[in-house]
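User: Teach me something about this protein's shape.
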Amino acid sequence: MVFASLEFLLLFLPLFLIAYAATPAAARNATLLAGSWIFYAWWSPPYLLLLIGITALTWAGGLLIGRTVASRARRLQLAALIVAMVGLLAWYKYANILVETVNLLRGWSGALPLPWQAVVLPIGLSFIVLQAISYLVDVYRGQVVAQCSFVAFAAYKAMFGQLIAGPIIRYDWVKHEIGAAGRRFDGAGFGSGARRFMVGMSMKVLIADTLAPVADAAFGQAHPSFVDAWVGCAAYTLQLFFDFAGYSAMAIGIGAMLGFRFPENFRHPYLAHSIQDFWRRWHLSLSSWIRDYLYVPMGGNRRGAIRTYVHLILTMAIAGLWHGGDSWNYLLWGLAHGLALAGARAFTQAGGQMPRLLARIATLLFVMLAWTLFRAHGFENARTMLAGQFGLQGFAPGDAMQAVFRPAHALAFALGTVCVVMPAFAGRLQRAAGPGLSAVAALWPVPAFLLSFALIASRGAVPFLYFQF
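Assistant: First, the predicted structure itself:
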């Protein structure tokens, strides 16, 4: 079940909200927990047991660390719990590709492949594990007090609004609201949350899902031309943003409807003026997690220039590897961003500076080329797409791209580009906007939501891209 589906919009969400509103404030965590577990079990009931097991282990581990006085024992407890979490994620996420790689090497040497039953990756497991690690580390650091109530902690861990694809909500951000007394469930919060949910769904259905066939057609060609490759890359660049930012907006909206205040996950990333600035704007809950739980513990920038560059590259390589276990392209994508961050840091420290507009264009071009690695189906697909982008396979659009491209795709391109660029002119627009324009801006999510609903009913639900990570 996904947010942009009829069963969620017509069945699960209305029934859950009625039950949540009818539940006394002191018992709403139990209702939230039950609803969230039902939501997760809708995909695969057996994997609900995995979620419950991770939740119980994290809750018990937090209590154990919080009650242990000896610092060495606390470190050992934390290390053992992190190893268990990472080992679990590694099994489900990387066992298939490791066996596939081993079998490829065995094939080159003439040996028979190893027998293997593919492991199914439970949806949301990457986000569930990162959230668990952040909680355990924060308890160890003394930044939060371990939650004594299993129901309250499990409700935080399983909140269906952010369970599958983030944002990666840290316990410290909602520790007051997870208590019944600290959470306000009222009309104002519900209204603003519903509006944010409608905005997110419109981003997902009207733009991301409409552009998906264009990206699929480009990346599916054996030898895409210059036009094919760049149109496909641009389509995927917008598709990924509006798909993931749309999901985040829907998650934030659901949280607000229930009385939670989740932080923003995107801040106009395609307007970034440097690669560092891009990572201060893109997937903020992940980028801040990488900084606080990987980069800084490694030593960050406190151990000299060379070690700083090594930490940047290694951190981003791990972040790339985290994104997927079905292709080594994600590792290459992470390494590319790590090298870019290191190079940008060296350029800045040497006194280098680019004009702001040129810096924005250069940053966006690099991000788009890196998205080619991210989206491609393996090394060969990435190689042919990059060859097309550099004009090595002709320039005219191919028949496949011409066949798939429709006026609706052009409209989605235009709408997506306007939505991405408009924040640069937000100040001027606000000054120029009169009462009538402000009213239109406040009400536009309603017709957009209704159109999105009609499209879902006609063509079915499309899974969110980040579900596979």
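Now, about its shape. The chain has a mean pLDDT of 90. The chain is about 70% helix and 0% strand. If you'd like, I can walk through any region in more detail.
User: That's plenty for now, thanks!
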